[in-house]
């Protein structure tokens, strides 16, 4: 007898399974974790299937069995589907999910994150229970427009509703620790993320596969793990760009991976976020939307709003003053760091760029810093383009903005919260995206009287065709925070008509989907670079999902996914599908 085995190592896409002989004293079946000899070393592998014959002339024997029935044939098929979708070998996908599991008798540690369980609002629970009751039992996917507070309440209700396993996928590690520390999910709840210790990680993976863990909360990795029987899957912040993973292989989007888990286990899939994603609209998933108080949209071009201070309009000034008078703090969102946005030559208009990645560095007090790769540079004394000494600071960063606002409100403290600075105890705080993703608590203390976006256009500007979709996410996130705080919400922009159209979120996303369809962009299709090795030609275009298998099997071509941020979406694409 022989076994087809996937080695648990990163391998090129062209490699599939390897045939090994089965010793007489071993009994193997699909899904067993075994030890094998591979390239002169002993590693782990997963049995794909067993067979009576092989075409391989010389095979090595399987060394030993580590874990019986780690997964089943459906799990293996699921991993193979993911591998085809992201153009990787199954071995690479299995390795990223399982690592090098060992047959150690590790016990799952008790939940050490329990602190002060949070009592979920009874009104929110009743609303969720009513929605679940009114939802047709045949509906397997549902979207809830809610904050993470509402999502935590949904999880609490679902945990009591379902008796089998529940999988919760979060975009960031912070949310996993908050959830398990605030909501009572039972003694068999565990979290798994990039900082989980290797021994604990192995124990959790095995216990989840065996069904002894009933609730698993995690980030990217948990979306592919084999499970015993899943009843429900919840995706937190399903429209967040944190799920996009284009920096390194394997580029697995956990939101797509859990769809396979849902099908395999006949589970219910619940999306929760501030707004639905375009994929949710495209798939026509039932939506449960909420009514949020409308923000005050301020036109930055209006002359009556100009008081001579950058990004401080008349309405915002009055709102800040009133909030401070009421002894409330002020939250100002401004996603630009440094003193200025860029350096630019007044003579030749040259803009110095980062020598490592080509991005435009921000200007700090004493140097330049690349926002993309983090490289720090000296401020050049002369223009690199024309050698003149007329380099000027253009734009405004949060440090200069802090100085300007402090002049207007000298009796209070003004602070900055970003990756390098945390002055969150100030009366007025100017925050970047770092604050929302890493510091904002799911159940925040109600201390803000004003929540404002100083320049909403920063979110709209970019070479990524998904910028407007992510901008709606940030807009509704700010509106939700303002509602939680019972605060006034103000949005400053140069394009107020665009912001107002976004407030009707379903209509706006349908129009955005229509535009994507016109230019054949995701989720209608995928973006890929097709490289012809023989002629050394490279072409960039869009490819429909159903045509991928035929494309992958062409011997002279290799298909790889590209970083869609570098693709020009509004260029005519006449390439064949």
Automatic annotation (TrEMBL):
Pfam families: PriA_3primeBD. GO terms for biological process: DNA recombination; DNA replication initiation; double-strand break repair. InterPro entries: P-loop_NTPase, PriA_3primeBD, PriA_3primeBD_sf. Residues 15-98 form the Primosomal protein N' 3' DNA-binding domain. It comes from the Bacteria. One of its GO terms (molecular function) is 3'-5' DNA helicase activity. This is Primosomal protein N' 3' DNA-binding domain-containing protein. It comes from Candidatus Uhrbacteria bacterium CG_4_9_14_3_um_filter_41_35.
């Amino acid at each position: 007898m022989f076994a087809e085995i996937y080695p648990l190592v990163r391998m090129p896409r062209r490699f599939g399974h390897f045939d090994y002989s089965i010793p007489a004293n071993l009994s193997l079946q699909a899904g067993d974790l075994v030890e094998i000899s591979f390239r002169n070393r002993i590693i782990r592998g997963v049995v794909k299937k067993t067979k009576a014959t092989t075409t391989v002339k010389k095979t090595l024997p399987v060394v030993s069995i580590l874990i019986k029935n780690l997964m089943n044939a459906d799990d293996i098929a699921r991993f193979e589907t993911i591998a085809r979708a992201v153009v990787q070998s199954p071995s690479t996908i299995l390795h990223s999910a399982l690592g090098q599991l060992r047959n150690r008798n590790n016990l799952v540690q008790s939940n050490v994150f329990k602190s002060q369980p949070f009592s979920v609002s009874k009104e929110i629970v009743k609303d969720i229970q009513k929605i679940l009751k009114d939802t047709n039992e045949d509906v397997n996917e549902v979207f809830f427009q809610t904050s993470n507070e509402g999502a935590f309440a949904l999880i609490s209700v679902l945990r009591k509703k379902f008796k089998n396993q529940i999988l919760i996928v979060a975009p960031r590690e912070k949310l996993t620790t908050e959830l398990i520390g605030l909501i009572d999910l039972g003694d068999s709840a565990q979290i798994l993320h990039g900082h989980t210790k290797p021994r604990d990680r192995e124990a959790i993976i095995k216990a989840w596969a065996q069904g002894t863990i009933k609730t698993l909360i995690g980030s990217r990795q948990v979306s592919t793990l084999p499970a015993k029987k899943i009843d429900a899957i919840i995706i937190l912040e399903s429209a967040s760009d944190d799920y996009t993973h284009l920096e390194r292989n394997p580029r697995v989007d956990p939101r797509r991976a859990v769809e396979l888990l849902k099908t395999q286990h006949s589970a219910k899939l619940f999306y929760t976020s501030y707004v639905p994603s375009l994929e949710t609209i495209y798939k026509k998933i039932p939506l449960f939307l909420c009514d949020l108080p409308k923000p005050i949209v301020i036109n930055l071009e209006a002359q009556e709003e100009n008081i001579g201070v950058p990004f401080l309009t008349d309405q915002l000034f009055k709102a800040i003053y009133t909030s401070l008078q009421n002894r409330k703090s002020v939250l100002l969102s401004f996603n630009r760091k440094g003193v200025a946005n860029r350096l630019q030559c007044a003579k030749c208009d040259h803009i110095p760029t980062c020598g490592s990645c080509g991005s435009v560095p921000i200007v700090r007090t004493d140097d330049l810093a690349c926002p993309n790769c983090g490289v720090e540079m000296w401020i050049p004394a002369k223009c690199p383009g024309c050698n003149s000494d007329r380099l000027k600071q253009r734009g405004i960063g949060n440090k200069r903005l802090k100085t300007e606002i402090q002049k207007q409100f000298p009796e209070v403290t003004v602070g900055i919260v970003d990756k390098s600075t945390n002055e969150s105890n100030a009366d007025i705080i100017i925050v970047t995206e770092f604050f929302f993703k890493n510091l904002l608590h799911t159940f925040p203390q109600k201390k803000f009287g004003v929540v404002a976006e100083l320049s909403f256009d920063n979110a709209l500007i970019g070479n990524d065709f998904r910028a407007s979709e992510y901008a709606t996410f940030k807009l509704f996130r700010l509106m939700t925070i303002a509602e939680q705080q019972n605060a006034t919400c103000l949005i400053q922009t140069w394009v107020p008509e665009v912001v107002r159209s976004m407030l009707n979120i379903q209509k706006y996303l349908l129009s955005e989907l229509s535009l994507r369809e016109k230019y054949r962009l995701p989720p209608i299709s995928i973006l890929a670079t097709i490289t012809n090795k023989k002629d050394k030609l490279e072409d960039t275009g869009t490819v429909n999902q159903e045509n991928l298998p035929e494309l992958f099997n062409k011997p002279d071509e290799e298909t790889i996914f590209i970083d869609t941020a570098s693709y020009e979406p509004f260029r005519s694409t006449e390439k064949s599908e």
